[in-house]
Specification:
The structure is a single chain. With about 110 residues, this protein is α/β, with parallel strands linked by helices. It folds into two domains: about 55 residues, Seminal Fluid Protein  PDC-109 (Domain B); about 30 residues, no CATH class. The chain contains two helices and seven strands, in the order βββαββββα. β3, α1 and β4 form a beta-alpha-beta unit. The N and C termini lie far apart (about 90 Å).
Length: about 110
C-alpha cells in the first residue's frame, strides 16, 4: 500500500480490500459481531452488502441500496415488506390483464 497527498487530496493505492463475509444464514445466527463504522460486510451466497455503524449487529443494519426487502417467488406469500420477483410480477400482470379483458354479457333476468 502507498499513500500520497496533494493539497486536500489523499490517494491510497491498495492491492486488495478484505471484507467481513459470511453466508446469509451465518450472519443471521451471529448476534454478537458489530461491524465498525464504515466497515463493509458481505453475504457470500446472496452478494448483498451492509455497512456498519459501530453500534448495530447485522440483523439491524440495512442492505446497501435499500431497505431489507424480501423477494418472493409466489403469489400467495404476502406482507407489506416483500417484493415479487420479476417472473411473478409478469404472472400477476397477466392475471390482471385477463380480468380486465373479461367481457360481461347481459343475460337479462334469469328465472328459476
Amino acid at each position: 500500500m502507498s499513500i500520497s497527498k496533494s493539497g486536500n487530496t489523499i490517494t491510497l493505492n491498495i492491492e486488495a480490500v478484505q471484507l467481513k463475509r459470511k453466508t446469509a444464514a451465518e450472519w443471521a445466527e451471529d448476534l454478537t459481531t458489530i461491524l465498525k463504522e464504515g466497515e463493509i460486510g458481505a453475504e457470500l451466497d446472496t452478494g448483498k452488502l451492509k455497512v456498519g455503524d459501530g453500534v448495530k449487529n447485522w440483523a439491524n443494519l440495512v442492505y446497501v441500496g435499500g431497505e431489507n426487502v424480501a423477494v418472493i417467488n409466489d403469489l400467495t406469500t404476502g406482507g407489506t415488506d416483500s417484493a415479487l420477483s420479476a417472473e411473478q410480477g409478469k404472472t400477476l400482470k397477466g392475471l390482471i390483464d385477463d380480468i380486465n379483458n373479461i367481457t360481461v354479457i347481459d343475460c337479462g333476468a334469469i328465472s328459476a
